[in-house]
Amino acid sequence: PNKARRCRAAGLRILSERTLGGGGGKATRMGSMSESALTKPEIEFPEGPAPTELQIIDVIEGSGDEAQASSTVDVHYLGVEFESGEEFDSSWSRGESINFPLRSLIQGWQTGIPGMKVGGRRKLIVPPAQAYGQAGGHPLGGKTLIFVIDLLGVS
Predict the structure, then answer these.
(1) How many CB atoms lie within 10 A of CB 154?
(2) Closest Cα to residue 3, out of 13, 146, 22?
(3) Of 1, 54, 66, 76, which residue is most buried, by most CB within 10 angstroms?
(4) Helix ranges restricted to H, 18-129
(5) Which residue from 146, 130, 140, 144 is spatially nearest to 50, judged by alpha carbons?
(6) Taking the CB of residue 40, how many other CB atoms lie within 10 A of it?
(7) What is the C-alpha to C-alpha distance for residues 132 and 101, in angstroms, rounded to an integer?
(8) What is the pLDDT of residues 111-121, one digit of tens each?
(9) What radius of gyration do the chain's Cα atoms show?
(10) b/e per residue, 76-89, with b = 16+ CB within 10 A?
């Protein structure tokens, strides 16, 4: 049974994770998503240990232009810590999307966004080595992070 619990971040609902399919690489597409790509996402609470490799999960597959490694992307995103479920950053909370050149972002985004199409929503589970490194150098250092990203545009 799915147990819902409230995250410390205001209004973020975390649900127990459903099995996404076999291990490794790309997980299977999640079943019924009732939310559109234009509403703040809910994060399904992960069970078990944090992955040691980047996990890329297409929640909604887009049909627009495809992001390349050299792209600048216009995104809405939500970031939470894997262990606590606590929100640490969100463009949704600021009320506007943001433009980033992919080359200037953490390695997990540089690897996890190319191939995504405009109109899509993708969940990335990023281990410390592909996020902010080991503990000590950055407030999020040593932490596995979950991002849900809506790709609004590429250039």
Answers:
(1) 21
(2) 13
(3) 76
(4) 91-94, 107-112
(5) 144
(6) 15
(7) 17
(8) 999 999 999 99
(9) 15
(10) bbbbbbbeebebee
Which two structure tokens, joined as six digits, stand for 46? 């992960």
- pTM recorded for the entire structure: 0.76
List the one residue out of 45, 48, 54 whose CA is nearest residue 25.
54
SS3 155: coil
Q: How far is CA 115 from CA 5, 49, 62, in A?
A: 33, 27, 10
Between strands 55-60 and 121-126, the pairing is antiparallel
Report the distance separating Cα 18 and Cα 2, nearest Å.
8
pLDDT per position as a tens digit, 10-56: 222 222 222 233 333 222 223 223 344 478 888 877 889 999 999 99
Q: Do β-strands 72-81 and 87-90 pair in parallel, antiparallel, or remain unpaired?
A: antiparallel
3-state secondary structure of 60: strand
Q: State the amino acid at position 120 in one-letter form.
A: G
Asked whether the beta carbons of 37 and 119 are under 8 A apart, the reply is yes
